[in-house]
Design goal:
The complex is a heterodimer of chains A (112) and B (111). Helix content of chain A is 0%, strand content 52%. Chain A has 112 residues and is mainly beta. In chain A, the strands form two sheets. In chain A, strands 2, 4, 5, 6, 9, 10 and 11 form a seven-stranded mixed sheet that branches. Chain A has a four-stranded antiparallel sheet with strand order 1-3-8-7, with no helix packed on it. The radius of gyration of chain A is 13 Å and the shape is globular. The model of chain A has no long low-confidence stretch (mean pLDDT 94). With 111 residues, chain B is an all-beta fold. Chain B has strands at residues 4-6, 9-13, 18-23, 28-36, 43-49, 54-57, 60-65, 70-75, 84-92, 100-101, 105-110. In chain B, strands 2, 4, 5, 9, 10 and 11 form a six-stranded mixed sheet that branches. Chain B has a five-stranded antiparallel sheet with strand order 1-3-8-7-6, with no helix packed on it. Classes of the chains: A mainly beta (112), B mainly beta (111). Chains A and B meet through β4, β5 and β10 of A and β4, β5, β9 and β10 of B.
């Protein structure tokens, strides 16, 4: 059981570039979420999904898109990167509702 | 709305006790506690459901007062391994099924 995996581990982008952060889980969890973590701000919810084909916005969705075509995968797309999106991004999965969140190892993103 | 944690930071010597508080302005269904080591992902500690529940995990326990919309995490006889940042995550108000995390409390345990 790999749990929750994220790729890449680290990425540098230039302002205006787009990219996709990958997230996959092998625990057959229905719920998946994306958080960003900034110093002193805790973890803020970007988008979440309650199952394949169903997504919804969190606290800070602007500038990000998600889709959920399978139970296992939940990619996060940055449409046009901005320096304000420099952060550590965590993907998490949960068996249901606000149950135990299993976090991936994170992706550290630097936007220049 | 983000729950408020206090204190922001605490420094202990091994064997000392600490309490971390989490307070919300909205009615809560549940409170979660996580610990994050530097450079690592947050790790689940425990969930408390409304009903004044108290749970324990080794020497770490927590309480949840739904009337006051507060939760407290109790660390007794602290060990070096307890060092890290502790986050509470709350579910409540119109955010059923979603967690809102506090800003974190940095706990440092010295020998």
């Amino acid at each position: 059981n790999a749990g929750v995996t994220q790729t890449p581990k680290f990425q540098v982008l230039k302002t205006g570039q787009s990219m996709t952060l990958q997230c996959a889980q092998d625990m057959n969890h229905e719920y998946m979420s994306w958080y960003r973590q900034d110093p002193g701000m805790g973890l803020r919810l970007i988008h979440y999904s309650v199952g394949a084909g169903i997504t919804d916005q969190g606290e800070v969705p602007n500038g990000y898109n998600v889709s959920r075509s399978t139970t296992e995968d939940f990619p996060l797309r940055l449409l046009s990167a901005a320096p304000s999106q420099t952060s550590v991004y965590f993907c998490a999965s949960s068996p249901g509702g606000a149950g135990t969140q299993y976090f991936g190892p994170g992706t550290r993103l630097l936007v220049l | 709305q983000q729950p408020v944690q206090s204190p922001q930071a605490v420094i202990l010597r091994e064997g000392e006790d600490a309490v971390i508080n989490c307070s919300s302005s909205k009615a809560l269904y549940s409170v979660h506690w996580y610990r994050q080591k530097h450079g690592e992902a947050p790790v689940f500690l425990m969930i408390l459901l409304k009903g004044g529940e108290q749970k324990g995990h080794e020497k770490i326990s927590a309480s949840f007062n739904e009337k006051k919309q507060q939760s407290s995490l109790y660390l007794t006889a602290s060990q070096l391994s307890y060092s890290g940042t502790y986050f509470c995550g709350t579910e409540g108000g119109t955010s059923y099924g979603k967690l809102t995390f506090g800003q974190g409390t940095i706990l440092t345990v010295h020998p």
